[in-house]
Amino acid sequence: MDTEAFARELRMLAAMKLYEMGRLSSGRAAELAGVPRVEFLLHLRRYQVFPLEAELQALEAESEESHQ
Fold it and tell me: What does pTM read for this prediction?
């Protein structure tokens, strides 16, 4: 793997992890990865990341707050 391909892969991995953790929206993660949002969302399967994980976490947190 050449340096440029490695850098692209590293940006994608960082974007995926931050998206998975709910730290970035899919749009911001796509920007970090340097790809269009749709392409980023299509890559989620390759990295075994659930596409709506961040959104589900936000909804769960919201639900927990409303039940307290």
Answer: 0.72
